[in-house]
Amino acid sequence: MKDSVDKLIFEIIAGAITLTLAVSLFATFYLGKINTNFLFGKNVSSKTNEAEISEMDSSNPEINIALRNKDWAEAEKLIEKKYGFPPKESNTAHILGLVIYNHALQIYSNNPSNSASLSSAVTRLETARALLISDNEAQKNITRALAGIGLTAYQNGSKVDGRKWAEEANQILNQEPYVNYVLGSIAVGEGRYIDAVPLLKISLNGEDKDIRASASALLSKIESDAKREEGFSTYSSSQFTIRFEGNPQPALSSRIIGILERQRSRVQEVIGHAPTGTIEVIVYTSPSFAVQRGLPDWVGALFDGRIRLSAVEVTESNDERLNKILGHELTHATIYDKLGRPGPAWLEEGLAQLITEGNSYSKTTLNNKIQSRNISLQSLGGNFTKMPQADAEAAYALSYATVLYLSHSHGGNIHIQILNELAEEKSIEEILIRVAGFGQQELGSKTKDWLTQ
After folding, report:
1. Of 317, 341, 365, at which residue does a domain stop?
2. Which tens digit of pLDDT belongs to each residue from 10-19?
3. What SS3 state is found at 314?
4. What is the span of the domain harbouring residue 440?
């Protein structure tokens, strides 16, 4: 700082350019909620030392005040106004980089559920990275922040962006424990155990005991599932493998395989894709199927990389109901195979209902369910199983209605077009604006209007 042309010196205390975010991360997947109990800022905060931080001379009072108040947005604006962007003097550029970094984290902490805020935070992180190119510690912290924001975005339902940011962080720091924990958590949530295990094992090498504990818990769950399934009975066809907990049930396995094979062509017709590999189905006879996975008791089936069913649900269902259950989960499996990841929840759930229910819907019934709860389409990017049953019913109704509205207003093939573009790693918002002419918020409003016409 001594050689700065404008004697740019700061009097804020050491560590003031460190924003601690009071945001606890949770690993929430089908395995249940595992509270990591560590603060996000603890893993991503920028470190500074007292030698860097002194005081600014009297010609810069406004910048001084903004820094003392940790008003990072104002400090960023004032420094860029006075010194230009990027500042010519390296120390000034370094300080601006730290300010922009903290501004990014502040944007994130103020509204972590808003996808636009997360995108804005990521943009600033990359700006800060360019300004702090010679600061190795800051580079690591920026990368950890990118991974953490990626996980938040993913859990919020912005799965394409979230996964992309987490993977970008991993490309920069592929042995960093926290970054690997984030990617491993996402892999577990998608049922990709083979991918998850090596990532989580790397995260066990980290210094943070909470990350190690959370990673260890996920690995234990994976191991427990694997051991439990070793004794399962197995039945296979060319396209499906059925694994039964408990006593062999060949007749029920044949029934499940037969329904899945008949549903496959209907799913392919709507989705525009046929799974390329064998789909695995796990049937649980234990009554604690949902509880063991942290699911509400109204869930009788799910897809998390494999189709999981309750044997009670299967055996007590007539052919019509079982067709709907298996067709619904096969839709999720087919979309996952096409995209290599889950799609937006409202799109998947809407298509699953379109496949199993067709056009046998009542606008009045759908509208009544939707109006009973205050939900928006853009909030339905993530798993509905986290919701109370009444909220979930409204979410399923809005998802179904939205897919029906898109078919009605833009033709039946619009869903295939959307899925094809999702497979190219584009965001759902970007795709909708291009193919439909509006984003999720307006789509939700138009759908609700359509139901009352």
Report:
1. 341
2. 322 222 232 2
3. helix
4. 343-453
